[in-house]
What we know:
The chain has 241 residues and is α/β, with parallel strands linked by helices. Helix content is 21%, strand content 27%.
Amino acid sequence: MESVPLPRAKDGFATVIDLGCGEGALAKAITGAKPRPKIKVHSYDLHAPNELVTVADIANLPLRDGSVDVAIFCLALMGTNWLKMVEEAARVVKYGGEVWIAEIKSRFARTKTGQKEDGPSKEPKKGKGKKKEKNIKDDTNPADAFVEEQEGNVDQNRWAAGEQSFVEALARRGLRLKSRNGSNKMFVLLDFEKVGTRCSQGFQIPPKPDMHGRISKKFHTEDEQETDEKSILQPCLYKIR
């Protein structure tokens, strides 16, 4: 991936939180680096195998609002309350800060229900409804997508519609996709920037100017959810060897 500067505080230090960190590998790497970079790493998990890890529920962090430059989820959105984890990261990250997510590709459904990869499906023709319905069902099966990826039959940079749904869900929480790297066979890396601020109506998101340079305020609220967001991430699939 292209090297880009980290968001930092005025003192030149970047405060990074590693959520669901396991043994705190990132903190170990940073503290052991010479010369030591200007990065403060705070590691959180449900268990603390060493002094670098703080015991905490990553859906309820002991941190102030807007106190963090970068939040990292490395294969950490495993709980059914993963949306709460994302919302908590959005709370503690500063405006203009970032949320980095590394996730297994097979967790994203290949398409949304009733939608082909090239866009929304059309109404089935008379007498062909059952066949169309079967095709949609097959397309949304994450196990099929997993097998395709294992056999190398998938364009690694191709987006699954389920991944798009994931990006949209985070946008409703004030996190806008900044970059994506899908070059790995198994994993996708997503970098989000916090561009929304919490308000009574939900998250206020500053949209990009239109073709005339006009900007209007926009709000993302919970009422905008068109899908069952909890089902966007599928259970992890493992290949038996």
